[in-house]
Amino acid sequence: MTNPVAAVPRTIVSLGFGAARVPVDLLAQVTGNGNNREWGPTLALDSVEATVRGLLGLLLGDPELAAQGHVTEARVQQRTEAAERDRAADARREVADDRLQRRREEDQQAREQVRD
């Protein structure tokens, strides 16, 4: 049977972070990042929430709250790694696009020289 007193801190943490999430979600919508779960401020808030849940769970002896913190932190880590992979892929794509553009320009110049 779960301890009803232990549910109070979980509820307070959930309500507090729910309220803190409102301005971050609004900013995400305004900046066009509403569906971007890997957006920096969203990840930062989720990371803080994970830390708070984990620490409070340990301090209050609430294993469920601590577990919520660990699960949230693991999810944040996965999303952070995904964002890093996306940035790396974008950088590689940009380099490849630049090389392709240079190659096309060189080929065009070579064709013009042959014509002349």
Can you tell me about this structure?
The protein is elongated and about 85 Å long. It is built from three helices and no strands. It has 116 residues and is mostly helical. 87% of the residues lie in helices and 0% in strands.
Features:
116 residues, mainly alpha, elongated
Shape category: elongated
Helix content: over 70%
Q: How many DSSP E strands?
A: 0
- Could you say which structural class the secondary elements and strand pairing correspond to? mainly alpha
Give the helix tally: 3
Q: Give the termini distance in whole angstroms.
A: 88 Å
Write the layout of secondary structure elements.
Blueprint: H1 4-30, H2 40-60, H3 63-115
Helix pairs in contact: 1-2, 2-3
Summarize the structure.
The protein is mostly helical and 116 residues long. The protein contains three helices and no strands.
